[in-house]
Amino acid sequence: MKAAVIRSWGGPEQFSVEAVPDPEPGPGEVIVELHASALNWHDVLVRQTGRGFTTPSILGIDGAGIRQDTGEKTVIFPGLNWGKNAAAPGKDFSILGDSTDGTYAQLVAVPVENLFPMPQHLSWAEAAALPCAGLTAYRALFKRAKLRPGETVLVIGAGSGVSTFAIMFAATAEARVLATSSSRDKLDSVRAIGVDKGFLYTDPDWVQQVLEATGGGVDVIINGAGANLRDSMACLKPGGRIAVFGASAGTTATIDIPDLYWGHVSVLGTTLGSPDDFGHMLEMIDKYQIRPIIDSLYSLTEIVEAHRHLESRNHLGKLVLSLR
What we know:
By secondary structure, this protein is an alpha/beta fold. Helices cover 28% and strands 27% of the residues. The chain has 10 helices and 17 strands. Helix 3 packs across helix 4 (161-172). The radius of gyration is 19 Å and the shape is globular.
């Protein structure tokens, strides 16, 4: 099979598209003939530093393809060994493509319990865009922040895969959706998928703008930036909830503790989700015929260009590799 192989950690140029041996399924595993795989920021972080994993490595979390055992179309749940606790993954939890070979390849071996029926209304690219970003957004909104109809949601940093899913899911759930971005063009674009009002976080008074637009704050914030936690908290109404799923703007944040307890604020960490979360997300996708936002489609041989585009942060939605 053909795969994008990493032999040294570093920049996008470290990818080499090679012919490598087909994977052999282990006990309880199935081979999936992949038609598409999506890129995620997690892939960039692993590619840059290795995070303690070994080379050669085939990265890739997301994938959709055909099961070799049944011939069915399938989409892959990206977590391995979640465990029995729905509240958080167990100590053996890992992510496909880290210490195992991932989905930047034409074939992948995965546990059979990680395979879910692919929603019929989606293309291969759309299905491959679902797993990591869709699952992260779904769990953040509904399992962690417990969003209710009629509430107001603020999505920080509109444009990423998770953010676009969060916007669509929240709008589908009958919430009012607000968003921030550094780009007016992105804010204009996400209005079409459910954003009622957008704010440029490059404006020094953007927090005050949110407070004025909402009459005192929002109920829920979905935050993948991390470092701007103090400003995000200032946008919450009393009793509000903020779900933090990433640290794209920095890994540390400072908050005023009195604001936390006087505001009765809930700060919730979240990432990916359980197999049950994944199944419920797919049910929502199917019921409401939701389609992921695809920014760009690349061939496997264009993996370097695709990663450079991802790192530029100029995309809206998901970047996807076509593998067939």
